[in-house]
C-alpha cells in the first residue's frame, strides 16, 4: 500500500477540491452531462451494508482458522500464512475476490449471501443528494460494481423518473449514450441473478458487451469514482487502455478518496497518469452533499406521494447513526428535514383530531395530501403548477368545504402576484359557496389594496351581519390602520369607539377583543401628544373597568403590563411586576406561561426606564426566581430576556447569542422572531444562521417581519439597494407606514445616499403622527444634511431634545448633531451602562461621530479589566 504522506507529496499537484469538481461539472456544452458517476462499495457503508474490508476481516479469520488448525492471532500472520501455503488461489492484492471464492463454492451460494447482505437496507442521505443531481441534469449515468439496489430505490422514492437498470451483459446493448433517462449499469451484475461477479476468476474480465459500453460512454463522458478502491483488474485494465487513447476520457478521471483510505500500487500508477486527478473527501454522503450545494441545488426530497419506505428513509436520515451531521452541508439539510418532518407530524395530528363522523369540516386524507402538496408549491413560488393543480381539484370535487380550501389558496396566489382583480373574482366564488359565511366575506376585505376601500366594503356588511362581534371588531382594526397614515376623513376615533361599544353590548366579557381595541384606540389617538397625561387618564379609567370585571383575566393582565411598559416609569413597572407575581403564584401552569411572558416584557422595559444601580439586580433576581419553574421558563420570551441580560448587563455577547439560538427551537418563538434575529446578528458572522432560521419558518409567519429582517441583513452586508427592495416589499404587505419611512431613510443614510434620505423624509414627515417617529426622522434628515455640509435646522433638533427630555438615544444623537459632545458623551456612557446591547446597535448609526465607540470596545474593556 502507498503511504498517505507519499501520496500527498508525489501527487499533490494532481489534487483537486470538491468545489473544483463542481466547476468542471457545471461547465458543459449544451444540456448533456459531461461526467458519469462510478460507485463502489464505499457508497453503501452508511446504508448499513458491510464493506469489502469488513467482510475480508471475517472471511480471512474463518478460512485461516479452518485451513491452518491454528488459533487466529494477528492479521499480518494470517496474510503471510495464506500467501505462503495457498498461492494457487490466495491473492493478497485482491483478497476480497479470492476469499469470497473460497468461502462460497457456487454462484448460487454467492447470490444468496449477497441477497442477505442487501436485504431491507435503505439508501442513506447521500443517495437523496445523488437523485437531486440527476434531477438537475448534472448526471444521467451511473456505473457501479455494487450488487445492492440502493440507487434504484432512491430514484423510486425521491424522483418521478424511473432509471433504466442494466444488470447483465446481454441487456446493455439497448442503452443509448444520448438518452436523457437515468441509467444504472451494474458491471458485476445484480444480486437477483446467479451470474453476479465476485470471485477472482469472474472479476478478471468484463463481459464483452459491458466492456464495449463502458468504452462507448467514456468517449463522451469523464468519470468520477466514489467509494471504489480499484481492486478489479478488469475495470482497471479498461481504464488504462482508455487513457492511452486521445479520443477517450477527454473530460478526465476524478478519483474521490477518503483521507484514511490506503492506495494500492496499481491505483497509484493510475493516478500518476495524464487526465487523472484525485479529490480528498470525508465519505460518500458528505461528498454528495458538498457537491450538491456547490452546484447550487437544494435537497428537496421530491415526490408528493406518501410512502412508508420513503418515511423510513427520511427517519433514517434524521436518526443519523453514522454521525453525518458533522458535515456542515448535511447538518444544514438535516435541520430543514427535521423541521419539515415536525410540521408534517403536527399537520397529521391536527387532521386526525378533526376526524369525527359529525364534523363536516373533516378533511379526507387524499385532500389533505393535496393541500400539503399545493402548499409546498406555493411556498416555493411555483404558482403556475399550483394554479393548474388547484383548478383541476376544484372541478373534481363536490365538497364545498374542500373547494373553499382550494379557492383560498388560489386567492393567496393571486394576491402574491398582485393580481387584485383575479383575487377578488375567486373571492366572489368563495362567497357563492356560502353567502352568509362571515369568514369568506372578511377574507374578501383583505384583498382590497387600499384601506379606504376595505373600510367601505366592511361598512357595507354591517346590515348583513348585524349581530356579528367579529365584523365590528375587524372593522375597528382596519380603521385604526387607516388612521395611522390618514387624518380623520373616512373614519374617526369616535366611530371606532362606537363600533367597539356596540360589540361590547353583544358580549361584555373580557374575552371580547373590543376591550383591547378601545385600549389601542386611546393609545393611538394620543400618539402625537408629547404630554401623556390625557392618554394616561383615559387608559386608567378603562383598566379600572376591566379590573372590576375580573382582575386576574388575561385581557386585563396583558393590558396592564403593556400600559406600565409604555409609561417608561420604573415605579409603575415595579408595581405591575408585584401585582402579576402575586397572580402567578395561584395560576395554572398554562396560565403561568402567559403571565411569565408579561413579566418578561416588564423586566425588559427596565432597560428603557429610569435607570439606577439596582436595575440589573432586579433583572438577575427575576431570572433566578423563575428559571426554577422548568416547564414555564422554556418559553422563548423568557429565554430571550436571559440573552438580553447576558449582553446588556454582563457584556457577554456569545452567551447571549447562544441563548437566542436556544430560543429558535422554543415555544412561542414565532412571536419573537425579530428579537431572536436582533440578538444573533449582534455578530454579523451569524448572518447565515439567521437566514436559515427565516427559510424554515412556517408559512403563516408575518411576511413583513421576515422582509424587515432580510433588510437588516442586507445592511450588514452593505447591500443597501437590496435592503430597500425588501423594505418596499414589506410596505406592499401593509407594513406600518411610519416604521417604513424611518427604516428607509436610515438605509439611505447607511448607503450614503443623503439626498434621497432628505427627500423621502421631507415628503412624508407630515403624514406621521407618532411624535417619536417624527423625532427620529428629524434626526435622520439633519444627519444627512450634516454629511452634505448643509445648514442644519438647529431649532428643530433642540425641539427633539425637549420632547425627549434630554434622555435616551434620540437625544444623544441630537446632542452630537449640534456638536454638544459633552452631553452626547454623557448620554452615550449612560446608555451603554444601562444596556450594553446598545454598543452593537450604535456601531452602525451614521448620526454618531466616527470612532466614538472605540473606547467601549468589549476587547479593550476586557483588557483593561484584566490589567
Description:
By secondary structure, the protein is mainly alpha-helical. It has 42 helices and eight strands. Strands 1-8-7-6-2-3-5-4 form an eight-stranded parallel beta sheet. Helix 10 links the parallel strand 6 and strand 7. Helix 7 (125-135) packs across helix 8 (150-158), helix 16 packs antiparallel against helix 17 (400-416) and helix 21 runs antiparallel to helix 22. It starts with a helix and ends with a helix. 37% of the residues are buried.
Can you describe this structure in just a few lines?
The chain is mostly helical and 867 residues long. Helix content is 60%, strand content 4%.
User: Can you tell me the overall shape?
Assistant: elongated
Number of strands: 8
Q: Quick check: average pLDDT?
A: 86
CA radius of gyration: 35 Å
Main β sheet profile: 8 strands, parallel
Beta percentage is under 5%
Classification by helices and strands: mainly alpha
Give the helix level as a range of percent. Answer: 55-70%
Low-confidence stretches: 190-205, 355-359
- For the largest sheet, list the strands in their spatial order: 1-8-7-6-2-3-5-4
Contiguous helical run count: 42
Q: What is the end-to-end distance?
A: 56 Å
Amino acid at each position: 500500500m502507498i503511504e498517505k504522506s507519499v501520496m500527498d507529496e508525489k501527487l499533490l499537484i494532481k489534487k483537486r477540491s470538491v468545489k473544483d469538481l463542481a466547476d468542471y461539472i457545471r461547465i458543459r456544452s449544451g444540456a448533456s452531462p459531461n461526467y458519469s458517476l462510478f460507485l463502489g462499495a464505499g457508497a453503501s457503508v452508511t446504508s448499513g451494508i458491510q464493506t469489502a474490508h469488513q467482510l475480508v476481516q471475517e472471511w480471512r479469520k474463518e478460512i485461516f482458522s479452518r485451513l491452518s488448525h491454528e488459533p487466529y492471532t494477528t492479521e499480518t500472520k494470517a496474510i503471510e500464512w495464506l500467501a505462503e501455503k495457498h498461492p494457487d488461489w490466495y491473492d493478497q492484492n485482491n483478497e476480497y475476490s479470492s476469499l469470497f471464492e473460497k468461502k462460497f463454492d457456487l454462484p448460487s451460494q454467492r447470490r444468496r449471501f449477497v441477497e442477505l447482505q442487501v436485504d431491507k437496507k435503505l439508501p442513506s442521505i447521500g443517495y437523496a443528494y445523488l437523485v437531486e443531481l440527476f434531477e438537475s441534469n448534472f448526471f444521467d449515468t451511473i456505473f457501479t460494481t455494487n450488487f445492492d439496489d440502493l440507487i434504484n430505490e432512491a430514484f423510486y422514492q425521491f424522483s418521478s423518473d424511473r432509471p433504466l437498470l442494466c444488470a447483465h451483459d446481454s441487456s446493455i446493448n439497448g442503452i443509448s449514450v444520448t438518452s436523457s433517462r437515468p441509467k444504472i449499469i451494474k458491471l458485476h451484475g445484480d444480486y437477483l441473478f446467479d451470474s453476479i461477479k465476485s470471485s477472482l476468476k469472474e472479476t478478471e474480465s468484463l463481459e464483452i458487451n459491458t466492456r464495449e459500453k463502458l468504452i462507448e460512454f467514456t468517449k463522451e463522458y469523464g468519470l468520477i469514482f466514489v467509494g471504489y478502491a480499484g481492486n478489479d483488474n478488469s475495470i482497471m485494465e479498461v481504464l488504462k487502455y482508455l487513457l492511452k487513447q486521445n479520443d477517450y476520457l477527454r473530460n478526465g478521471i476524478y478519483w474521490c478518496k477518503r483521507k484514511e483510505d490506503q492506495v494500492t500500487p496499481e491505483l497509484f500508477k493510475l493516478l500518476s497518469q495524464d487526465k487523472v486527478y484525485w479529490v480528498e473527501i470525508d465519505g460518500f454522503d458528505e461528498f454528495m452533499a458538498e457537491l450538491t450545494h456547490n452546484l447550487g441545488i437544494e435537497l428537496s426530497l421530491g415526490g408528493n406521494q406518501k410512502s412508508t419506505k420513503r418515511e423510513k428513509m427520511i427517519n433514517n436520515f434524521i436518526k443519523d447513526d453514522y454521525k453525518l451531521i458533522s458535515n456542515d452541508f448535511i447538518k444544514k439539510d438535516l435541520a430543514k428535514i427535521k423541521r419539515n418532518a415536525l410540521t408534517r407530524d403536527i399537520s397529521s395530528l391536527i387532521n386526525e383530531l378533526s376526524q369525527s363522523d359529525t364534523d363536516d369540516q373533516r378533511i379526507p386524507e387524499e385532500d389533505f395530501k393535496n393541500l400539503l402538496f399545493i402548499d409546498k408549491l406555493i411556498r416555493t413560488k411555483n404558482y403556475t403548477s399550483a394554479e393548474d393543480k388547484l383548478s383541476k381539484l376544484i372541478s373534481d370535487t363536490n365538497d364545498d368545504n374542500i373547494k373553499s380550501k382550494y379557492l383560498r389558496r388560489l386567492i393567496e396566489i393571486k394576491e402574491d402576484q398582485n393580481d387584485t382583480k383575479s383575487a377578488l373574482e375567486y373571492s366572489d366564488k368563495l362567497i357563492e359557496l356560502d353567502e352568509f359565511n362571515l369568514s369568506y366575506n372578511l377574507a374578501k376585505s383583505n384583498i382590497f389594496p387600499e384601506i379606504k376601500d376595505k373600510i367601505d366594503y366592511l361598512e357595507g356588511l354591517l346590515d348583513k351581519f348585524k349581530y356579528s362581534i367579529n365584523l365590528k371588531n375587524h372593522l375597528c382594526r382596519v380603521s385604526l390602520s387607516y388612521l395611522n397614515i390618514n387624518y380623520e376623513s373616512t373614519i374617526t376615533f369616535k366611530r371606532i369607539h362606537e363600533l367597539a361599544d356596540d360589540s361590547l353590548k353583544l358580549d361584555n366579557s373580557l374575552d371580547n377583543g373590543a376591550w383591547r381595541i378601545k385600549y389601542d384606540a386611546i393609545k393611538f389617538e394620543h400618539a402625537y401628544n408629547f404630554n401623556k397625561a390625557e392618554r394616561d387618564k383615559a387608559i386608567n379609567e378603562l383598566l379600572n373597568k376591566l379590573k372590576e370585571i375580573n382582575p386576574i383575566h388575561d385581557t386585563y393582565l396583558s393590558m396592564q403590563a403593556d400600559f406600565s411598559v409604555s409609561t417608561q416609569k420604573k415605579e409603575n413597572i415595579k408595581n405591575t411586576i408585584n401585582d402579576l407575581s402575586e397572580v402567578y403564584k395561584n395560576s395554572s401552569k398554562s396560565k403561568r406561561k402567559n403571565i411569565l411572558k408579561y413579566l418578561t416584557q416588564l423586566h425588559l422595559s427596565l432597560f428603557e426606564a429610569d435607570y439606577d444601580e439596582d436595575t440589573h439586580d432586579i433583572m438577575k433576581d427575576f431570572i433566578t426566581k423563575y428559571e426554577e419553574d422548568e416547564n414555564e421558563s422554556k418559553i422563548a420570551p423568557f429565554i430571550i430576556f436571559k440573552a438580553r441580560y447576558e449582553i446588556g448587563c454582563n457584556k457577554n455577547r456569545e452567551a447571549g447569542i447562544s441563548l437566542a439560538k436556544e430560543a429558535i427551537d422554543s415555544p412561542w418563538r414565532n412571536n419573537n422572531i425579530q428579537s431572536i434575529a436582533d440578538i444573533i446578528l449582534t455578530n454579523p458572522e451569524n448572518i447565515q444562521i439567521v437566514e436559515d432560521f427565516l427559510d424554515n419558518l412556517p408559512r403563516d409567519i408575518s411576511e413583513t417581519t421576515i422582509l424587515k429582517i432580510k433588510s437588516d441583513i442586507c445592511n450588514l452586508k452593505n447591500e443597501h439597494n437590496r435592503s430597500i427592495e425588501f423594505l418596499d416589499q414589506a410596505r406592499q404587505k401593509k407594513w406600518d407606514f411610519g416604521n417604513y419611512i424611518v427604516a428607509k431613510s436610515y438605509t439611505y443614510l447607511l448607503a450614503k445616499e443623503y439626498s434621497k434620505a432628505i427627500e423621502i423624509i421631507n415628503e412624508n414627515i407630515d403624514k406621521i403622527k407618532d411624535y417619536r417617529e417624527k423625532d427620529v426622522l428629524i434626526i435622520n434628515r439633519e444627519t444627512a444634511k450634516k454629511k452634505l455640509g448643509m445648514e442644519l435646522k438647529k431649532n428643530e433638533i433642540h425641539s427633539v431634545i425637549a420632547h425627549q427630555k434630554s434622555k435616551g438615544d434620540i437625544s444623544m444623537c441630537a446632542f452630537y448633531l449640534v456638536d454638544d459632545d459633552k452631553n452626547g458623551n454623557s448620554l452615550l456612557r449612560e446608555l451603554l451602562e444601562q444596556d450594553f446591547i446598545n454598543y452593537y446597535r450604535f456601531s452602525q448609526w451614521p448620526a454618531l461621530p466616527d470612532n466614538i465607540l472605540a473606547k467601549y470596545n468589549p476587547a479593550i474593556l476586557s483588557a483593561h479589566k484584566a490589567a
